[in-house]
Fold D19L3 mannosyltransferase.
Amino acid sequence: MTTVRQRRVGKGTEAAEDQPSEEKNVKPDGKTLSAHTGGKLWNILSITVGGIVAISVGLLTSVYVATLHENDLWFSNIKEVEREISFRTECGLYYSYYKQMIQAASIQQGLHGLVYDNKTESVRTINILERMNVYQEVFLSILYRILPIQQYLEPVYFYIYTLFGLQAIYVIALYVTSWLLSGTWLSGLLAACWYITNRIDTTRVEFTIPLRENWALPFFAVQIAAITYLLRTHLQPLQERLTLMAVFIATFLFSLTWQFNQFMMLIQALTLFILDCFDMLPTAKVTWLYIIQISGLLLVCVLQFFNSMILGSLLISFNASVLIARTIQKNLKKGGLLNRLGKLILHVLLVLCLTLLINKFIKKILNLESDEHIFKFLKAKFGFGATRDFDANLYLCEEAFGLLPLNTFSRLSDTLLFYIYIFVLFLMTVAAVIVAFRNLSGSNQAQFVEKMEECTITLKPDAAYNLIHTVLFGCLALSTMRMKYLWTSHMCVFASFGLCSTEVWKLTLNCIHLYTSQRTRVIKYSIPIITLLYISYKFWPGIMDELSELREFYDPDTVELMNWIKSNTPNTAVFAGSMQLLAGVKLCTGRTLTNHPHYEDKNLRERTKQIYQIYAKRSPEDVYRILRSFGTDYVILEDSICYERRHSRGCRLRDLLDIANGHIMDGLGENEPDLKPSLYPRFCEEIKKNLPSYTIHFTRVFQNKTFHVYKLAKHK
């Protein structure tokens, strides 16, 4: 039962729809026809101008972030090894597969090297296409090979320009979503301007280019725009089918490009579930969206060689549970308030129980443990017991996985974004609560229509979806800082929509008894224009200064290390070290690794914990035995980890290892009572003393201010 009242288009349109098209209703002078033609021409002109502005703003954003990247690193002038080192941590790992495909003798050999990869994890052959979301690198490398651009454009520029180009799509999608919600492209322009002026909090593409989210979020924004359009009423069947196809394609591409897709879409599925429970969305469209999510994820599962983590995702279990529960509870949306509430509570409990049962069953059948570290992290993060689990603590101690810092809100407030967002959010939430209560109270269709005519507060399905979407993703961002980019970009959309929305201003003016249609129209255009002028006046000089500021990439120690590895070690050499550094070793030198930053595999997590014993209090014999068990030839020790000061006591990597090993931590401070002193000194410190017990197993072959490389002896 749809409970959302449609916004009236205007008297002229109502007359055209309601009155019979008899000849007597048409004035002899043809004024009605002229007005209708003028209205259509005005709409065409508005859409054309709005479309041109959208594309222009998108392209300008793309050029803006590309220029910032160039100015920050002097990317066009630095050496190839420096360019590659600039792709830090997991970014370097992902880019290495693009480079690998480019350098392969043929596309077939490149794909074979990815499917049967024995250089990413030593003494193991893994399927990169199954384990990681790197189809975008594969597609881009094939495109680069077949296009006649090799002599004009280096592979690295083709790669980064593609990512910067996706930023144009991202901004255009945000622009269109805001335009669809408000009915005016002025809203889209304001959303785009907020996205740019709040760049620090809306994107990090200019310094983490290959990161999976930079590939995925543009497609997620396109999907939200398509869903917003789909939830409009009175769509023609062809329009609806085409929109569903657009939603499916965007969902599929989003799922294909990011390993955390299932968690983001689970929040989206919860949004649909909440709105459907309160009868605020058409049930048929919600069902289609559930099916699209499942089918898109299953298609990705097939392309990733039946990745078990996807099959065991909570999203598939939840969506299947909702569809099953609907079948069981057929009369869910009938009856009075108390009857509906009772059914609703039972429905929620049924869906929750079915989700847990189905998910537990799938994981038991598949023996799935790939994502257990995420649930351990969540359990510890939200206070369900302390943990000594190394993987969970590794996440808990990272700032990116902590709570959203309060200074984020002060930055967002400088552009007026946060203030306006809270204002719009409050009004829309009040309207949603009233509409939801009214929907649950409606006992029959006749009474429902009567109440709708009497009540002035309405909420369109597309606005309702974006309201719950922003609330749930806001909760995610507040709890985990790394996920703020999903919220802040949508915050720009939601705030700009509210500022340009007839419904929001009508509700506001009605509350203070000042409503007139003419006053509403003036306010909905004048305040956004004033806001745009304010943003331009305050931030344009800063943007110009930012674009004129020139820096240069400088990391001589890492450059020296990579050059030494390429010149002084065999191509088959196996290197051990920190996850972040080894990703760069693979990219810059092509050597085999023992571990890497893509953490979604239980065996790799256990392997990483073992490799990291080089920073723990272990005997040289134990460390040597562990490293050789993974085929290690060289181990790289970093002073920045061994003597770390970035984190406080208890969160330093060496502290996490001590706790996991049951050892007392270094330094002043409390220790848990059952922790014991270690029998051995810290390996990374003691090895530098060249004691016989160490030199028998390890020989230092390279050293600079940051890194120490030791070659392992090959004992019989």
Notes: Residues 31-73 form the longest helix (43 residues). Residues 1-28, 448-455 have pLDDT under 50 and may be disordered. DSSP finds 34 helices and five strands in the chain. Strands lie at 574-576, 592-593, 634-638, 698-703, 707-712.
